Amino acid sequence: MSKKNKAGHSYSKRGKAPEILTAVSVLAGIASTLIAVYLITLLWEGKPLGALLIPTLGIALCQIIKGGFYALALWQAHEFAYSSLLTIRNGLIDKLKRLPLSFFQKHKTGELAGIVDHDVERVELYLAHTLPEVAVTGLVCGLSGVAVFILDWRMGLALIATVPLVVIILAVSSPFWKGAINDYQDSTRTVSENIMEYIATIPVIKVFAAGERKTEKVLASMDDYIGKARKAIYVQAAPMGLITVLVEGGVVLVAIVGAYILKAGPLTSSDITRFILAFILAQQFTGSLIKATTLMYNKAVYDNTMKSVERIMGEPVREQPRSGAPAVAGDIVFDQAGFSYDGTAEALTDISLIFRQNTTSAIVGPSGAGKSTIAGLLLGLWRHETGSITIAGRRIEDIPEAELTALISVVQQDNFLLNISIEENLRIGKPDATEAEIRDAAQKAQIHETIMRLPGGYQTIPGEGGVRLSGGEKQRISLARMMLKNAPIVILDEATAAVDPYNESLIHKAISELCENKTLIVIAHHLNTIAGADQIVVMNRGRVEAVGKHGELVESCSLYRSMVEAQQQAQNWNIKEAAV
């Protein structure tokens, strides 16, 4: 059995109780039918009413058993199904927690949410409604077919005359509708991703008047989804319709053959009974065979869903080193480090740098030079492929992820707040922080007074992503959270690039508080903010172009000098001059 289907098989294997209960229910129904035929025979023969009592009670008992065991089967099946859903979702969430951050940069939130929510929900359809029927359908099909042969071999042959054609049609058509199901489910995930992205970015879309273009993208994905859904229906409907006609044709053939048999000889009550029973059993046989084809479709959907689950569960988890002595801050050293995103083009080549403890370093360079990639390697988003990276002499691959995360804080332009109270958002930095520590961090981050003006103060819910707060306010709350975390290494990714002058002034004060006595690495676009750095690293095309102080680089590095001149020209630009 393939590794991909191992999880799906284990869930199928554990769902035997509902199958057994359903089988008892179906057998009770068949027994009820047989007794009913026997009762008809007694009536045909003119037996007294007293002789009909036991068969009548037998039918009633069989119906009670049928209903009772079916109810038990439904209860067991749904309990098992929802328990399995919980187990699968918990497993996925646990797995996602342990995957490296680089995994989430390669997969959209909508894609992962669609698998955890929508795809896993389909497992319930199979486990609760399909799996209990699988064995039962085979049992009923086999027993009823054999019974018809026992009653009369000629009617038995008539019943299965069309089965070879059914098998051929299934063999030819199944690859097509399985492929269509796969395309349909992929399209479902895509439209879910696009809708989630559209809703999440509506404010930006409105600001930049990009609504029509984004709406067209969503509508195009919906059109694709509808097309894939129609294809899945058509590809399945045509063979299923033909199979139904052929299978039901078996009942017609049984009726025709039975009629000729009855016509050929003297008519007795046993002949009538045998014919009626064969006709009823033939309908049981064909009904089960048609149901089996439907179950095959549900099984294909289930298998495809489990493949999506297994794609996540099969993702390699970065092996965590054994925790020895706790990781400590110190000099950060890149020694001939290299990295490639796709295994071909190098994003970083031969990077050799030293970020001294408790100093300020800036990384500058044109877009795509590798500035953020250096930060990503230090954060453990990716693993360097050549050379080494150490913190206080310890290789970062030897530092457990939790310890590495505790060493480093990152302040970015975009800061996400959870839809919980501001106090709870702050506690993410230090879960056991006292109320006094939270207030102190907020004051140092220049956000305390703003929070106190909110209707609920620190208990105010900022909305999903912090939509009820300005960008500068979210930035300062994020800085307060970093202060509570109190990591010895701070990475600033142009934290003030997208805020107004008032908020920029407050954020600079907060950053000064945050970075006191810490190792600070600034990924800079505004060169005037890093002129006083202890060292400035100039990156170009994935390599270190130069390292030095501001004045030294202006003299010795043409790239840095051109960047400084370009920024000075931009600062001197004004609307009046542009109009001239």
From TrEMBL:
Which SMART domains does this chain map to? AAA
The record's listing under CDD domains reads:
ABC_6TM_exporters
Location of this chain's protein in the cell: Cell membrane
Which InterPro entries does the record cross-reference, listed alphabetically? AAA+_ATPase, ABC1_TM_dom, ABC1_TM_sf, ABC_transporter-like_ATP-bd, ABC_transporter-like_CS, P-loop_NTPase, Type_1_exporter
Cellular component per GO?
plasma membrane
GO molecular function terms noted in the UniProt entry: ABC-type oligopeptide transporter activity; ATP binding; ATP hydrolysis activity
Q: What protein is this chain from?
A: ATP-binding cassette, subfamily B
Membrane-spanning segments: 20-44, 50-75, 157-177, 240-262, 274-297
- Cite the ABC transmembrane type-1 domain residue spans from the record: 20-298
Q: Does the keyword RNA-binding apply?
A: no
Question: Which parts of the sequence belong to the ABC transporter domain?
Answer: 332-566
What keywords would UniProt list here? ATP-binding, Cell membrane, Membrane, Nucleotide-binding, Transmembrane, Transmembrane helix, Transport
